[in-house]
Each structure stands twice: as C-alpha cells, then as structure tokens.
C-alpha cells in the first residue's frame, strides 16, 4: 500500500523472515529491499538512502520508529539504520515504558504483527512506460511496525527463532543424555 499525505510516502516493505525480535524488546530486519518491485509498482534502487542517512547523521537526527505510521505513536528507537547490499537494514528497541510498545511486543511474539514499512519523500525517481518508478533517492523519515506489509512475503521470523531455540534445546538435551549413556558404559 502506498499512501501520500503532504509529500510523505509510506511503503510497506520487508522481506520474508528478514525482521526478527530478540531479547523481548530488540527488533531488527530489512525495512526495504533493493531491486524488488512492490505492489505499488515501485522499486527502490541501491544508494537511495545514502544522502538522507548522511543528512540525519550530520544534524544528530534519527529515523523515527512508529506504530502503523502514526506520528502520535512512537514506540521505540532505531539504533542502527544502514544500507547494505540487500537493502535498508534497521535495528532498534521497543521501549518498555511505552504502553503501545508493550502491546507491539506481545503482538510480535504472537505472530499478529509481522511487517515493517517505510515513510519517506521521493527526491529522485524515474518512471518506465508503464508508470512504474525506480526510486533512486529517498528522504527517509520513519520506519513503522505494521500489520500489512507492502510485499506479501514480508514477514517477521520471530516464530522461526522460537522454533529454532526449542530445537537447539532438544538437541542439547539429547546430547546430554547420550553423554550420560556413554559415561555409564
């Protein structure tokens, strides 16, 4: 879904399993993927965030973490926002002292919330004959936790991490039992 209000665009765009929740309040993942066309027909190109991130750093600013793009509902802080070869990677913390952040953490843990979305203003883009845009420079304002990400495969993998942790615990227990059997023989 692409919405525009006062020049601010919001794009739901995380890729399957790219967003994770750790240690109760820490979240990380890709808020945008390069070269992947979204449901609105836009493709973010590598380098699209570089200038905006430099401007923010120069003035001591930060990309905001919001709930469902609502500027009245900040729920945490992004501690690291950077481009890499795949896209825009974010890492941050939900704030325990914020009621909505506690709700978000519970919803993430339950698998009810599983997407990231970016709020930005397009600085430079090109359009093809079909009207699809290649976004080459964006002024990034915020990254939100959202219910419905732009890409159908945009999902949190917190459940997969829980399943992996349970599998590792089972494996460790099996190895302990095997060690006890071997020690007894």
TrEMBL record:
InterPro entries named among the record's database cross-references: Peptidase_S78_dom (IPR054613), Prohead_protease (IPR006433)
Database matches in Pfam families: Peptidase_S78 (PF04586)
GO terms for biological process, alphabetical: proteolysis
Residue intervals of the Prohead serine protease domain: 26-159
Source domain of life: Bacteria
Keyword Hydrolase tagged: yes
Keywords attached to this entry: Hydrolase, Protease, Viral release from host cell
UniProt KW Hydrolase keyword: yes
GO MF, any single term: peptidase activity
Name assigned to this protein: Prohead serine protease domain-containing protein
Species per Swiss-Prot/TrEMBL record: Tranquillimonas rosea
